Amino acid sequence: MRSYLDFEKPVAELEAKVEELRALGENGNAVSISDDVSRLEAKAADALKDLYSKLTPWQKTLVARHPQRPHFVDYCAGLITEFTPLSGDRKFADDEAILTGFGRFRGQPVCVLGQEKGHNTESRIRHNFGMARPEGYRKAVRLMEMADRFNLPVISFVDTAGAYPGIEAEERGQAEAIARSTEAQLALGVPNVSLVIGEGGSGGAIAIATANKVLMMEHAIYSVISPEGAASILWRDSARAQDAATNMKITAQDLLRLGIIDGIVTEPVGGAHRDPKAAIQAAGNAIEEALHDLGNMGPAEIRDHRAEKFLNIGRKL
User: Fold this and answer.
1) How far is CA 39 from CA 15, 31, 209, 293, in A?
2) pLDDT digits over 225-282, tens only?
3) What stretches of the chain adopt beta strand conformation (E)?
4) Where are the beta strands (DSSP E) in 212-283?
5) Top-level CATH class of 61-311?
6) What end-to-end distance do the CA atoms of the chain give, in Å?
């Protein structure tokens, strides 16, 4: 069953009427209602297109967090064949907030990393809502170093509200683990491409998004802190999250203009949750193009390209 966001109510009402008319037709209603169904479907499609053409930053935040939006496991299943997951950081434990492994992306062997939030209560608890602990980032470092050793490109999928802020995570060196993961990516002699598929939150995101090419889904967000967190700090009022979202420039469109990211992957009208297969296919095409652009570079060129990309942020503003 489709879940609607609050600002989608006009579309929800139209689509509910369409379903009612279809139910009448299936029950053998004598009056032909096909014309009415077609008219309402067209009206609902137009309303949805118009609505999503002018989303506010806060509305994009809600879309990025939509419970039916495809997660890392969906992208992995749709894009990676022969996927072999690897677990554990070889130091403390395995962290299921970050899933890692090796597989083939459109025939090419690759290393894959992704933050997984979970789809239901049980899986969300198991994956800690996508908020990784230090062992998750250390596992990512272990896999990236293996990828570098065997000359395999690295693809990462970002979807987290941020790194886990619990006391035990701090006791085990959360900040150091994030810094080491960022450092490991900067040192890679193989191409790496990162795609923000939902939320890209703070250091928890940058820890696996320090890539040669950083892409974002059209309605994803990427920020140093959540809008609610920023509002609590700036105005001591989390209810002003909408104001924070607007002022922080967290949308893909703003970040492309500012040079923070390298490309935007167009989503189906109504968001990736409306047509996950189409969204995943579009993401795959963008990743393939990015890897192709980096394919002829040697290790030194790859490192220089990545370093220059991040050093250039802010220089042209």
Assistant:
1) 11, 16, 45, 45
2) 999 999 999 999 888 999 999 999 999 999 999 999 999 999 999 999 999 999 999 9
3) 80-86, 98-105, 108-115, 154-160, 192-201, 213-217, 221-223, 263-265
4) 213-217, 221-223, 263-265
5) alpha beta
6) 45
CA–CA separation, 247 vs 250, rounded Å?
8
How far apart CA 78 and CA 71 sit, in angstroms, is 11
Q: What token pair was written down for 119? A: 């789809």
Tens of pLDDT, residue by residue over 33-45, are 776 777 888 888 8
Answer whether 215's CB lies under 8 Å from 287's CB: yes
> If you average pLDDT over residues 141-154, what whole number do you get?
97
SS3 of residue 111 by DSSP: strand
pTM: 0.92
**Does residue 264 contact residue 252 with C-beta atoms inside 8 Å?**
yes
Q: Where are the domains of the chain?
A: 6-54, 61-311
Q: Which of 124-127's residues contact partners 24+ apart within 8 Å by CB, and which partners?
A: 126/96, 127/96, 127/97
- Neighbouring residues of 48: CB distance < 8 A, sequence distance ≥ 6: 8, 11, 269, 270
